[in-house]
TrEMBL record, chains A, B:
Catalyzes the condensation of farnesyl diphosphate (FPP) and isopentenyl diphosphate (IPP) to yield geranylgeranyl diphosphate (GGPP) needed for biosynthesis of carotenoids and diterpenes. InterPro entries: Isoprenoid_synthase_dom_sf, Polyprenyl_synt, Polyprenyl_synt_CS. Keywords: Carotenoid biosynthesis, Chlorophyll biosynthesis, Isoprene biosynthesis, Magnesium, Metal-binding, Photosynthesis, Transferase. Coiled coil: none annotated. This is Geranylgeranyl diphosphate synthase. Its cofactor is Mg(2+). It is an enzyme of class 2 (transferase). One of its GO terms (biological process) is photosynthesis. Gene3D superfamilies: Farnesyl Diphosphate Synthase. SUPFAM superfamilies: Terpenoid synthases. It catalyses: isopentenyl diphosphate + (2E,6E)-farnesyl diphosphate = (2E,6E,10E)-geranylgeranyl diphosphate + diphosphate.
Amino acid sequence: MPFTARIEAAILRSIRAGQSGTPPPKLAAALEHAVMPGGARIRPQICMSVAAACGDDIPTMSEAAAASIELIHCASLVHDDLPCFDDADIRRGKPSVHKAFGEPLAVLTGDSLIIMGFETIARQMELDCARAGQLTLALARSTGMPYGICAGQGWESEPQVDLSAYHRAKTGALFVAASRMGAIAAGHDPEPWTELGARIGEAFQVADDLRDALYDEETLGKPVGQDEIHARPNAVSELGVQGAIRRLKDILGGAIASIPSCKGEAMLAEVVRRTAERLTPVAPNKAPAHPAE
Amino acid sequence: MPFTARIEAAILRSIRAGQSGTPPPKLAAALEHAVMPGGARIRPQICMSVAAACGDDIPTMSEAAAASIELIHCASLVHDDLPCFDDADIRRGKPSVHKAFGEPLAVLTGDSLIIMGFETIARQMELDCARAGQLTLALARSTGMPYGICAGQGWESEPQVDLSAYHRAKTGALFVAASRMGAIAAGHDPEPWTELGARIGEAFQVADDLRDALYDEETLGKPVGQDEIHARPNAVSELGVQGAIRRLKDILGGAIASIPSCKGEAMLAEVVRRTAERLTPVAPNKAPAHPAE
């Protein structure tokens, strides 16, 4: 992926700022454990790709946007893994934060990473205050209440679930943020980029459902069969494996078709194609080409 | 307290925005449970008082700053009450959020309130982008890592505690934020206001230690003796009850002396005096004049 070095450097800058001076050592270590080494960094890749397609005239602004999205995504993984949610012992092939550091530090790690996400954007305000402000609003809308990932997770505590609101918020919101924030970081109108993020998010949800149904725990690097255990809606139980794979390809085709006409259009279509390859499961119980999130 | 109506209205505006549209109903209710009705709102009162002393030329800016501090303060209370921390069943005389709504929604309530705090400030950026940006940075520094309330709480998981770093971060940071953000919201340099916040924070910590040692659970509206149970440092065990009360009065005297020369100086000293009255415990096992936090 073309933006990996810039994304990793931006995330590391934020983590190092949070570890500066004399912080409590275990919480400082837990922050790094939660974020490094990362998964595919799909959301930051989308954000940087859209920024590049829009000219990326303030590189540190798009890097901050991408890093902020990943920090809050990692925060959501740490809190989702807690005993009161998925009670997951492993994440990205190593112990989850609460397994490695205990529950109190896992709660605080998530909280600190959320704050760090907003701080990362705010540090760019001197370069362009209006863009930094818009990025903050876009990030908050896609992560909090009433429509962000917190809201999405909140639907899991309801007896009657609004399924489309659930998926849109839980998985889709941060992909929409990724594409919109890429445009905002480069000074462009985010509206034409919303559909791209929404479709990639939808594809990602179907791919995640397929992985959850097809892979074993060792291959996936996290517990499997969670949707069945928690009776969560799942594309495989609805469409079957082959149906879900067809649906995934359709959605990604639609994502490519939705890319607005711009000078980076071809590059961006290539990024979506690579994301598609990465997302599509190869075969049951065969190792995926890329690490899971 | 003179700013109560403006503070409550500002907090309610933020909560209502988070409940708008079609949010998951229980999480929407949990947000309100965590924030309404409030305690003394001491931090927002300090923020508004400093803003008033500095001219308060953009009233919605100081209101947003005050509300953002209280939202994040409430988030920290919700997460502190979780079973993995204090395991508190009651807060402000009613069930804690995890008791009323369950642990998953309590985790999400804290997360949502943190995000809502940053969103509340970002909504003011159109009025003055630079001030909103500075407020965001001040809020992040006082709440996250390495020096904010998350860091303070993180020290409780360390075998060797840096006591001054612990108190400065856990209790002091949000009071420093309150005084500094009041100045920033009114377009003033926050530096001269740092000491006021730091001293009120120190006083609050001593008062909290006194309440924890002197009151019973029914009077206090939350579990007592927590410092002893969790072997946390406490001013009463260090100085005795009378020694801690003298220390409290000294600190508040110092707080009043630290107020920079300004047109609202007398009003602000009066606010500190009223805060002092509110903080000073009346007598063992006698009801406090004001609700606890």
